[in-house]
Amino acid sequence: MTSLLELAQVQQYPAATLYVVATPIGNTADITLRALHVLGLVDRIAAEDTRNTGQLLARYGISKPLVAVHEHNEREAALRVIEHLRAGERVACVSDAGTPGISDPGAKLVDAVRAAGFQVVPLPGASALATALSAAGDWVATFTFLGFLPPKPKQRAAALQPLADHGHAMVFYEAPHRIVETLQALADAFGPARRLLIARELTKLHEALWCGTLAEGPAWLAADANRQRGEFVLVVEGASAQASGEADHDALLRVLLEEVPVKGAAKIAAALTGASRNALYARALELKNEGGEDDAD
Ligand code: SAM
Fold it and tell me: If you take atom 11 of ligand 1, which residue's CA is the nearest one?
């Protein structure tokens, strides 16, 4: 029988290559055999936090030279990594948790290494994004990953506003100190009725997955002070096809109403969209009246 280590070794691991290696997001056991094999094989590891990675490696009896590559030095550190690749080394890149480059350092390093002509090889593994989505259900069949929202309320609202009609589920990352205000901002932007999944402390001792609506989310969080602690993935249902279709119709009617009377706008919009002319006429009237005019031709 083939041993598990042999399976990890089936692939070749050429020299002068950057290996992007996913590490656990909580439970230390969530590391792949290939990740351990490659971390043991490389000459050097570029790590977001060398102390944190040192502890993970120690759990698996691996000791390697570490290079710090974090948010604030990624471009300069990339030059050093490229020097090591030029010398023929295999270099691994890891972040503090999960998959590098996903709301984490790694992406700029990948760009620089590829631009310098070296191969980049990804080793898949844990990510909070995929972990939360895997337990969300069919309503997230199509999704958009948005990572962290801006911390300031004004910028956050501005980032959410154009997403109100977005038809895919939306996935956000959030830290404990902003979870309450972020949930409120999501409800303000998308209304109370949309489905919400809160995935907290995934793979950890106090893991919790809760599914309800945007209106119910704050009460779930407030029911126990502990629920506001830890790390969060938030998944929000996209606008329904009907709602986003209606928004498209509104946008079209608004443009037409600037040029032609209500009846004509409804006729053209019906021809372009295939929607009911009567329904569009009624909506065009509403829009015209909202605009302060009440002359239905
Ligand atoms: N690169 C990581 C990944 O692949 O998921 C994400 C790193 S990002 C700096 C950290 C954020 O990811 C946290 O604030 C949280 O939103 C999310 N996250 C990471 N681990 C998590 C966990 N165990 N449970 C829930 N969310 C988590």
Answer: 173
